[in-house]
Design a protein that fits this description.
The chain is mainly β. It has no helices and eleven strands.
């Protein structure tokens, strides 16, 4: 069974930091592109960051310079280090995996063709 299990969410003050983790099982992690999406109440789901099997990364403009994505293939885990958190960052953050060479940039939130999705972890920011 394919599983993507997120952890590390919580509540922090504006300007603080969190690190999200996503541990994968049930598929080939090493040749999959991994990424993070987020969705806040009243807002559409959007892609935050991706990391490919070759280590190349992508970040949405609003998080560049603040968030860092990384992966540990030995642990089948992808991380999202979030620094300098802002009031607009709170959301449920979802881990995703693109399979068969699929780039997450090409698929919609929760799309099931060549993609797997976690259950999400809540991030809140207080001012």
């Amino acid at each position: 069974e394919v599983q993507l299990v997120e952890s590390g969410g919580g509540s922090v003050q504006a300007g603080g930091s969190l690190r999200l983790s996503c541990t994968a099982s049930g598929f080939t992690f090493d040749d999959s592109e991994m990424g993070w999406y987020r969705q806040a109440p009243g807002n559409e789901c959007g892609l935050v960051s991706t990391i490919s099997s070759d280590g190349s990364t992508y970040y949405v403009d609003s998080v560049k310079g603040r968030f860092t994505i990384s992966q540990d293939n030995a642990k089948n885990t992808v991380y999202l280090q979030m620094n300098s958190l802002k009031p607009e960052d709170p959301a449920v953050y979802y881990c995703a995996a693109g399979t068969g060479g699929t780039l997450l940039l090409t698929i919609p939130c929760f799309g099931e063709l060549f993609a797997y999705w976690g259950q999400g972890t809540q991030v809140t920011v207080s001012s």
